[in-house]
Each structure stands twice: as C-alpha cells, then as structure tokens.
C-alpha cells in the first residue's frame, strides 16, 4: 500500500572533544569470538570470550553492541537478520577492542550444519559421541569433527567419538561440504567431582485419572531447564516414552530423572478419580431488553453457568430459531422470546421488545466493547527502528484490530494461546518510547517493511501463518514477513468455529473485495445509491465485528492510499444512510509525544466524482473511502438455520 512520506527535519547540535586514549589505571582486556561468521537463522551462535593481559578469562565481563551500546543478555549472539554486527566488552570502566560478526543470508540452498553431543558431562574414560545434521539429514559419516585446542590449533578426532584421561572443558565443531557447524562444549570430570545440581518438577502434581489430563515434567540444571534427560516411573524403574504422564487408574505415582548419569530428586503425582458432577443450571442475561427495530440497534446476550461465561458453548434461540452469535438485531417491531440451551440445560427466558423506528433521530453503533472513550486502540507510527515504520499504516491498523479481537476472546472467558502478543507496548524505540500496542513491534521486527503492506495479509499471518494470497505478489512490491507467524495456529480451527464467516472467506476476515469498484467507479450507482451500498457494508461488518478502512488522501482514488481503523458509525434513521464515522489513524499527529486519538468524520458524497467523502477537523481535512476490510469478533459464528 502506498504511503505518504512526511519529511522529518531535525536540528542536531554536535560538540566534539579529543578522547583521552591513555588511562594507566584501567586493565587491558581483549575480546575474541569463536565464529566470525554465522547464518541468520536465529540458531547458529557466535560465543564471546574476554581475557585480561595474563590470559585469564573474565567471566564478569559484559558484551555490548558497538553501534547502539546495548548490552547482550549473554555471552553469545544469534540473529534472524543478515548483516554485519560489531561488539565490544567492558569490565568496570575498562573497554576492549571491537570484533565483527557477519550474519549471512539464509536461502533455500543454504546448508545449516548442526553438531550435537549425546551428553555434555562425562567421567574420565567415558566416550562422548557426536552427531552432525545438515538441514534435517544425518551426515555424521561424511562430516569431519574437530577439537578446538587451547593454542588455537585444530585437530580432527577419531570418527564421531572422543575420550580423554584429562579433566577439563573441551570444545568441538564440525565441517561438512565446506560449511562449519555450531560449537559444542563438553566437560570431563572425575568420579569424585561434585554431583550435578538437578531438580525435577511436575505441573500439575494432581491430575484427573481420565487418560487425557496430563502432568508435564521439567528438569533444571543449576536453575536452567534441560530437555535431553530420561524420565522413569519409580514403581518399576520403567522409562517413560515422553516427558508427560497420564493414566486412567487413580493413585499416587512417583517419578525421577536421569541426566548425564546423575539421578534427580523424586516427584509425586496424584491421579484422582474422575467425579462426574451433575451439570449446573445456566442463566441468560441481555445487555438491554428494548431495542429499536432499525437493523442497527441490538441486544447482546451472555450465558453463565456457576459463575463462568459459557456463551460460546451455548445455543441461543429467539422465537424458537437459532440466533447467529449472541447479538439480536431486527427491522421488525414486536416482542421476542429468548432462551439458551447448553447440553441438557435450558436457561430462563427473556423478553426483548423491538420498538418501531420513527422517521427522526439517529442511531450510533460502536464495535463490541467499544465506546467513545474506551475499548478502541490507536497505534501511532514513530519512524524509528531498523527500517523505520513510515510505510506501516497497515501494521498499525492490523495491530488495533487484532488487539480488539483478543479482548473479545478474553471477555468470553478464554485464555490467549502461548506465543500470542497482548497488551500495551513494552519495546522502546530511542527517546520516543514504546508503541501503544506491543503487537506493532511484532510487525516491525518480523516483517521487511521497506514498502507498504496490507492488513488482509497481516492479520491471517499473525493468526494462522498464511498470507491470504500475498505470497503471489511480485518480489519487492510490498512488505513481506521474515518469520512464519501463526501465533494462534495451534487452536485456530476451534476459534474459527466461533467467528462469522459470511464475508466471502472462510476465516472471518476477507481480502479487499468491498472496494470502490463495487460502489463507485465501474458501477451504475450514483450519488446516494453509492452511499447506501457502502452503508450496508458497514452495518453488516459491525453486526459481526468491526473493520479496517482504506482511505485516499486525494479525490483520485488510485493514489495516496492509507490504512485506518473504523470503530463506530452513525446512521440517520429517516434515510438509513451513514452520517458520521469514528476512526483511529496512525498518521494523525505529526510530532512526539503522540497520544491515542479517536477522529470523528462526517460522511457525504463528493458531488464532483460521487466518491464517499469523509470530512473532519483532522490533519487531512477531507479524505475518500477506497475499501472496507471486515473483521469478525470471537463469538460471532453463523448458523445455517439462523434468523
């Protein structure tokens, strides 16, 4: 999506002075790195070592990026972004030399070589066995494994095994077809060396003996989790096939782990009898019992059971017909009987009155959970970061919409899946602070944003890990992700069943099909006919959720496109046409500090071109609607036999 580029002019006063390069009180420290070249796959690492002038390793040294002075969280570095990175070390006030690590681009032809050892701690006389992998294929027999000696000379070991009678730390790497692997460090100790500090734990420690509820085990070495351990049932010393336990027999079970020949503590898990309780009654409540029969006003229903929200697990009936989702809208005046059913339980009955609409007055509708003062989001761009965010209006809008959806999901009593990004921004960009939502940082850090993008691709990428057709775009024509996304992929099939899927797609969000070719150029619709068509699109979107809105900053709808978020609208009851809309915009403020702002626009027809014109006391003054991007909320599933 093309964006308007705004020039940022900054006046910077610079004062320089001669650096004092001599300080006899500071020690000389030297920074070195085991790999000056790694692949930008997020896995291969460059590990740093800091020594003093007597070759003593300084374990308390801190490593920093030389260009930003940001401290690394550990003594190793990996990245998913190709490029050259420079580092230095500090011990107190002493500063080291600078070293450079090059992160190489990963392509389809790149060979990623991975070296692993069967353990990382051995007794003298034991044999360490190594394996070499290339892109998922075992190439151990064709690879060469090297021992990195302390004098920086290298010698290959015998095959893929190594043994020694000298205690110490030993570092190894492998080479295969000209490519070097990661480094692997193992230690050889004597039998009387201190035992490993390993601790086994289970979560939860009490499960239901139904064969499905599981206890998950974690083993920690010196407080850090390890995965390559063996788990045993203490009753018969039988080894479990996985790091989890379930059973259909009630009782108390004891487990222990073996890691590098060391036995851990014992952990007990209690499996209790499954108690089948009689299902509790359900209750249905309505947000209001009186609505206007205007096809816009609605009553929203909530079903609870023993204090829990079970709306998404219930079926709601209105006059004996299944309701689509949990909101009732009608254009027919009268009284309606409403109840809910969950399993064998039937709720109380409600009476909803739909009043006849007079020819005067207006109706205002906001997205579920949104008011003029709360529930909406406005991510503002900052033009900061690796490649800036000047082209990222689509990402700001997508972040607003995704956060609104996640709010609806949590309001239904659900827990967001592991990996989902939620809540206010926490990642800071220079002196401007974090974005309003941390979701914006996901798109900033995990997409190549050198060009504009599209919300109808960003949203499914975040939820499902798909681009909704964007994968077929011409190279370099638009923003593209650098990671797989799909943060809801593990549960999306279940979530999808609770979303309205009538927009012309199967997932509750749509491609850009509701555009001005349907209500504007290329149609026979004129004047208010176009506005009536667009009004119907807005009303339909808000019956099931909310929408993104693409606008043009020019009456020429082919240029200057910009993504915004549509949160609410107003309809004239007499004409049934839109009169106002409420929008948030990532570009509505020019200078920091930028604060969330809900913009109100009047809706009319541009008589010159019959475009849908939005006018308000905003930065643009006027803009023009290009396309609407509906997005369903959680709990808005459609039923084939609905009203």
Q: What structural category characterises the helix and strand content?
A: mainly beta
Outline: globular
Give the overall average pLDDT. Answer: 82
The number of helices is: 6
Q: Major sheet, described briefly?
A: 6 strands, mixed
Assembly of the depicted chains: single chain
Give the name of the CATH superfamily of the largest domain: Cysteine proteinases
Give the number of domains: 5
Using the CA coordinates, give the radius of gyration. 31 Å
Q: What's the level 1 CATH class of the largest domain?
A: Alpha Beta
Percentage beta strand: 35-45%
Q: Report the helical percentage.
A: under 10%
Explained architecture:
With 643 residues, the chain is mainly beta. It has 5 domains: 29-104, Immunoglobulin-like, CATH 2.60.40; 113-189, Immunoglobulin-like (Sandwich); 198-272, Immunoglobulins (Immunoglobulin-like, Sandwich); 282-357, Immunoglobulin-like, CATH 2.60.40; 393-632, Cysteine proteinases (Cathepsin B, Chain A, Alpha-Beta Complex), CATH 3.90.70.10. Helix content is 10%, strand content 36%. The strands form 10 sheets. Strands 10, 13, 14, 16, 17 and 18 form a 6-stranded mixed sheet that branches. Strands 20, 23, 24, 26, 27 and 28 form a 6-stranded mixed sheet that branches. Strands 30, 33, 34, 36, 37 and 38 form a 6-stranded mixed sheet that branches. The longest helix is centred in the middle third of the chain and has 19 residues, at 393-411. It starts with 28 loop residues before the first strand and ends in an 11-residue tail after the last strand.
